[in-house]
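Bump. Still looking for Oxidoreductase structure tokens.
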Amino acid sequence: MDGAGMRCDTGEEVVIYPCLNWGDNRAGPGSHFAIVGDATDGTYAELVAVPESVLYPKPPKLSWEEAAALPCAALTAYRALFTRARVMAGETVLVLGAGGDVSTFAVMFAAAADAEVYVTSSSPSKIRAVQKIGAKGGVLHTDPDWPQQVRELTSGGADVIISGSGSMVTGALDCVKVGGRIAVFGPCGGRMAMINVPALFLGQVSILGSNLGSPDDFGEMLVFVRRNDIRPVIDRVYPLSEISRAHSYFESQVRVGKVVVTTPA
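Sorry for the wait, here they are.
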């Protein structure tokens, strides 16, 4: 679903908005919604055919690899943070699962918006890595008491929590501030969560679903990237001929940021 390249007809440098038929409602996609590479052929190719409506100008300062890393992950992070959770400057943001592609963008975007950013991870090295791109610190979510550690680290809990894991919503409820927001963008690590309902309503907590984003979200994300000079974190780059190696590395869970596949010029 991710991709960047040059239009064959005009020579314009573009990035691909990864959604088809979102519709007119920014709140959510319509009944004919689809994803590039799901309902259509994807971007593992030298020539890719997509509707003209999903082509947006490539941010000029980004390399091809950086531009190709943007669409799905950056869009997902942007919508979760700003359209759904409405993060504001000065708020404390906790990003669960540091090192993944969406979470890496979430750290950079929240830091660029002048939020105070913390993370959880299963790896001390990943926490150190994201501290270089804006996180102030983090805790290991492999520790059973990680929510308590977050409360101590954030002086009482996070205003906003961004999670790509359904199962970690349980712990998130234990370390979100009163009136806080939890934005969930995926089911990685578990589709089900046990919800402490009194903590939800007594704490006035909002749990928000978020998935990819509208055309408006995508356009705003690209403007945000340009204005804040965001440079996507690229872990490794593989040629298309080594696509199996790229997938093996991606699935190893040792990466921080994006794995990018290039095609011959």
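The first helix runs from residue 64 to 68.

Edit: fixed formatting.
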